[in-house]
């Protein structure tokens, strides 16, 4: 057999194997994570105790 025929047969078998395997070789997708909800509050001209979480009513 010539190299050209041997290469064509090997390539054909590889393509057939890939076609038969199909989804068995597919990588399972991981669901995308939901984006986090972030609230950023920026204030100015406050003392450290001006906020409610620091004990100020």
Automatic annotation (TrEMBL):
Protein name: Sulfatase N-terminal domain-containing protein
């Amino acid at each position: 057999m010539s190299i050209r025929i041997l290469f064509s047969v090997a390539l054909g078998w590889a393509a057939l194997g890939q076609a038969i395997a199909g989804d068995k070789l597919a990588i399972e997708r991981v669901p995308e994570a939901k984006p986090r909800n972030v609230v950023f509050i920026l204030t100015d001209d406050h003392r450290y105790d001006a906020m409610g979480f620091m004990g100020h009513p």
